[in-house]
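Memo to structure team: turn this sequence into C-alpha cells by end of day. - J.P.
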Amino acid sequence: MALPAPLHGVIPPVCTPLDPRGEIDTASLTRLVNHLVDGGVHGLFALGSTSEVAYLTDAQRGTALEAVIKAADGRVPVLAGVIDTTTPRVLDHARTAAALGADALVATAPFYTRTHPREIAAHFRHLRTAVDLPLFAYDIPVAVHSKLSPSLVRELAEDGTLAGLKDSSGDEGSLRRLLTALGGRTARHSGPAPGFSVLTGSELTVDAALLAGADGVVPGIGNVDPAAYVRLYDAARAGDWEQAAAEQERLVTLFSLVDVGPESEMGRSSSALGAFKAALHLLGVIDRSATAFPQRPLSDDAVAEVGRRLTAAGLLKPGGAATL
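Reply from structure team:
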C-alpha cells in the first residue's frame, strides 16, 4: 500500500514469537499482528531490534516478514527491517523484502567497521537506487557505533534518498536539532523536506517528541499495550497535552517491567524482550514467551512480576484474565 507522506502515528516494532524448536511461530505472530491492528496502530515495523532481527537466520527473517505482511493484509503499511553489516548484505534483505510485498525498508548505517559520513550517505543512496521502496534510516548508535548527524539526515531527506528516520539514539538534543533544521514544530511539513517522517524510538518521551514536531513513535512496549500509545498520539494531535502526559506517565510505569530480569543473571536485551514476550503470553496473544538463543529466559518469579505489573496497569485482571 502507498505510505502516507509523512508516515505518522504509532508503528510498533513487532515481536517475533518462537515455537519449541526456536523457529518462527507464525500462528502466534498472526495473532500479535491482529492485536496491534485492533489496538489502532498506524503501521508495523517487522524485523527491528524488538523483533530480535539480529538473532534470526535469513530464512527465519523471510518467514517472519511474510507472516506479518499476510496478517496485516493491507490494513496498515509494513516496514521491513533490512539490518545487516554491509551494503551488499543489506541489499539481499531489501530485495527479499520487496519480493514479499513490504511497503518500505528500514536500514541502519553499515557496522562492524566504522564508516565515514560520506560512506554512510553512499550506503543509503545505493539502497534507495537499487530497490524502489521508501527507505527509512534507523539511528541506533548503541548497536552500530555510528551516530547519524542532523546535517546528514537533512541532506538525505532533501535529496529524496530517505523517506524518514527512526531515532533510537537517545540523544534528545540531536533529535530536536534535526526537527528544527527541518522547519521546527510549526513548519515541519512546509520546510526543506515536507514529506519526511521523524519517528522517535524513545518510548518514554513520546509526548515531548510529538510536541517538538515528531510525526510518531516506534515503541517496543507498544506490542503489549498498543492502544495506550494510540491514545497518547491522538491526544497530542488534538493538542490535549495534559492527557498525552497522563498516558505517557502510565506507560513509563508499565515500561519498568523491562527490568524484571536481574542484571546479575542476564543482559538487558534478555530482560526487556523476555518481559515483552512474557506479557504477551500472559495476555493470551502468543503461545510461548521464549526468546532467541543465547538470550536467557526469565525466571518464574520474574514472569510473576510481569503479571503483577500488567495487573497494576489494568491490562490483566487479578485472576489472570486479560482485560483487552
